[in-house]
């Protein structure tokens, strides 16, 4: 799931990552990083299912509860196995994982996400999972191919079995949108419609509400924009889209910002990262890009204000090349340093395919990728309405055959950070759009790969 | 190391300038006191407002936490406290106990080890003392992140992961250069004549340390204890790396468990438990503050 990390947290995380990378590089080939180098070990995942494994994931109290429940089910089904669990919140999870990776001490079942996956895969820290799929140790037949491919590295090998798919959506304050007469964007609306829609709505909104949060610095919008225009985000570990496209993108957003359709750059820069504190959940803006699963907490916050306003999510705008809405999948990887691969593989297989486990977990971390389970959950009358909406929008996006992005190593630390910074320089009047685009391309291309 | 020069504090402190409003000095002592207290109270109120807000918000229902900047909850509830305390696999009583054990051992370790190291640097003569002192100070310049990974690898090789040893043992080895430096500076200004007198009375190095240096250094030890307590109690990265099993979590990790950047956070219980978690710090501060004052009062020589 996407998250906008604060600057200080980012710096701390980046320095840990840098330190971890240095040490990893220094110790390459030694026991500290497990089996590395050209003669990479492979494992088909079959063998005895017994002993201890460590299982690590990110999340807070509610998710920890259901995650523990699934791990308990696995232990019940395999009495010879003991699963020790490690959880932490998103940012802290990666801080710890980076340090563990440099110490050759990654958990046997490590939760990863497509955007960070290749930071680890490119350093040979993860086992390729194709042999385990071929041997039948991990059954992935229920996962749609487009979704499964998001767990592949640049070399085409599968390094992560995706179990939950998050997506970015446009979160719209339905009450405000209908009051202005602009309404909620219809199915299949495109970027042109989107920008016009914002401008039109702004005329009839209350003075203290902006139609949208400033969007030029959000990589999530950019990805959807680039894909909808038929371009690639990345090619050969470098930026894959033409610079003119970014100029157009930023020009559109700058026009909106300057004409007061969005809030101000100052307000945008000050927005807290928690979903509950986001401007759209607070009713300060009418629309913003948000992860699809933020609908429930955001509506909860909305309800706390007693304004009676309703939020709704719709897919991001389409373009000449169709939908640009990408899926951001989370899944499980098995590190090369794991000493109990067969049990780890059995755990991953259990997580993906066990009906009871899926019901307990109930898409707590993105929509369940197992197509059978997805249908079961949508059909479940006890599922809360907002959660059902989240799953239905996912189904809608999968139906539009979403593009798969293979994120190059350094994506989050380099690309996202440089992108947001470059747009800030435009929004705060320090650089022209052209200049910021040139600087951004130079900086991001130097850091990627 | 050369003997530190010692100048007795004979200067009288400069008289505080008289408060003025515009050009008219306030003459009445009562008026001055009122003005001074009013200003102090205003500053305190501004500084403590976030804290009051946190306490106020901890009594609001979860989804109303961020709806107001005011302090008084309109829908008063204690749910956050009951829910927060019992949330997770283990309750907060477990996390408080873990935190207290680690913090207590760290305070003892830091005070004892740093005091001994400081005594050696300030009073004893041994080869390479200046070089070693410089190296010790040099470790202050190393950012934490540089040593983080090598340390992790070392503790991992020692099989110390998921034990409190990585957090506690270094404290007993005087690894906090700042505290050693602080104590060295403090011991250096204690008059050497007292050491000499004790030596004539038959004390060795250990006797001087125990009977002269330690009793006179109580204020410094109080400072070290206080800072160690606050740093260790609030430390999150250390426990995050070394204590990943939920039954070993500290309070900071328990608080982290309420936050989920990728889903729904429980801010009400978070603020309720955060309110409780600052209580030990405030309590410890009050206790050591008295020690500080006593220490200064009894070591009238300074």
TrEMBL record, chain A:
InterPro entries: Bact_solute-bd_prot1, SBP, TAT_signal. The keyword Amino-acid biosynthesis does not apply. SUPFAM superfamilies: Periplasmic binding protein-like II (SSF53850). It comes from Phytoactinopolyspora halotolerans. Residues 1-25 form the signal peptide. PANTHER family: ARABINOSE-BINDING PROTEIN-RELATED, DIACETYLCHITOBIOSE BINDING PROTEIN DASA. This is Carbohydrate ABC transporter substrate-binding protein. It holds the Pfam family SBP_bac_8. The keyword Transferase does not apply. The lineage of its organism: Bacteria, Bacillati, Actinomycetota, Actinomycetes, Jiangellales. Keywords: Signal.
Automatic annotation (TrEMBL), chain B:
It is found in: Cell membrane. GO terms for cellular component: plasma membrane. The keyword Transmembrane helix applies. Residues 96-288 form the ABC transmembrane type-1 domain. The chain crosses the membrane at residues 33-55, 95-119, 131-153, 173-191, 212-233, 266-287. It holds the Pfam family BPD_transp_1. It is a multi-pass membrane protein. Its main location: membrane. Keywords: Cell membrane, Membrane, Transmembrane, Transmembrane helix, Transport. Belongs to the binding-protein-dependent transport system permease family. This is Carbohydrate ABC transporter permease.
